[in-house]
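Input structure tokens:
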């Protein structure tokens, strides 16, 4: 019975110090040891993992066993159903545990009132701008060039919307999966940045299966995962990071036509090319695997700090 009580919103009785920490997200009960995992909380996490990860993963694996892997391409037609399925499952899983815990979705950093709100669109602008900044530096150094425009007429809008839908689903899935309920649950136990480091490492590991990915590209994925966590910590929700994530991938795959995590999309707006050492251009991983990307994202972290100087997401949620 005590395990059940420990897992419910930190208990009905809060100490004075915990109440103060909850009212000031920038601070937390840093001297408190990690809270023990209650049986009910462990069960909810397992239910969430089963619905968000295991069920869609097994379904996709079964579907691919029936197909021909050699025919696989990175296109809107091949990716949208899969990404939409994963997005739906993680949204469903989060909704279920929200009802089980009797918590609003805002506790997990996804307040419904923020859907497609100002923070989302601001994040989109930042994501497109940061990816463009990487390619601008590579262009100035002679390592990136635009060869031609690949699409014309109505195809531009069709593919722009199609890839937009794909990467919106990708962002919903990956942000809610790695920086939604999971981040919240672990932050309650271990504080925010320990939880952020763990989920970012898992986020990087999840990209190991991408074809043509490389070590630097995986390290960059871990780093950008931490950057997304910084955005969540400072804005108090996932919407800014979600918009940044979607626009970054959209710019990389569709607009500039470069590889994205080792994948080159079909139906890109520009035909472009990267020349030079892999550590500089990112090689098969694309510009996000470039050392320039690391420097640009460091600059981005500083700008996020200046734009959002106060922490809004609690260090240890209650």
């Amino acid at each position: 019975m005590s395990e059940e009580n420990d897992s419910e919103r930190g208990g009905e009785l809060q100490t004075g110090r915990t109440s103060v920490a909850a009212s000031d997200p920038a601070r937390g009960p840093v001297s408190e040891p990690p809270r023990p995992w209650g049986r009910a909380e462990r069960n909810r996490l397992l239910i969430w993992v089963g619905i968000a990860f295991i069920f869609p993963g097994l379904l996709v694996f079964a579907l691919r066993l029936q197909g021909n892997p050699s025919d696989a391409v990175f296109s809107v037609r091949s990716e949208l159903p899969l990404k939409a399925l994963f997005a739906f499952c993680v949204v469903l899983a989060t909704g279920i545990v929200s009802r089980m815990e009797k918590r609003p979705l805002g506790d997990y950093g996804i307040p419904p009132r923020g859907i497609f709100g100002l923070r989302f669109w601001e994040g989109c602008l930042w994501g497109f701008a940061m990816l463009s900044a990487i390619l601008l530096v590579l262009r100035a150094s002679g390592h990136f060039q635009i060869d031609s425009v690949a699409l014309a007429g109505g195809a531009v809008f069709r593919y722009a919307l199609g890839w937009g839908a794909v990467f919106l689903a990708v962002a919903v899935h990956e942000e809610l999966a790695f920086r939604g309920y999971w981040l919240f649950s672990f932050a309650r136990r271990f504080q925010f940045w320990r939880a952020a480091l763990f989920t970012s490492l898992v986020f990087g590991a999840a990209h190991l299966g991408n074809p043509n990915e490389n070590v630097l590209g995986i390290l960059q994925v871990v780093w950008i995962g931490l950057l997304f966590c910084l955005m969540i910590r400072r804005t108090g929700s996932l919407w800014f990071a979600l918009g940044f994530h979607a626009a970054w991938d959209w710019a990389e795959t569709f607009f500039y036509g470069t590889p994205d995590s080792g994948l080159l999309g079909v139906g890109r707006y520009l035909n472009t090319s990267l020349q030079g050492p892999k550590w500089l251009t990112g090689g098969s991983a694309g510009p996000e695997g470039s050392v320039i990307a690391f420097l640009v994202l460091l600059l981005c972290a500083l700008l996020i700090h200046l734009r959002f100087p106060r922490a809004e997401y609690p260090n240890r949620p209650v």
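Residues 167 and 246 are 5 Å apart (CA to CA). The two ends are 19 Å apart (CA to CA).
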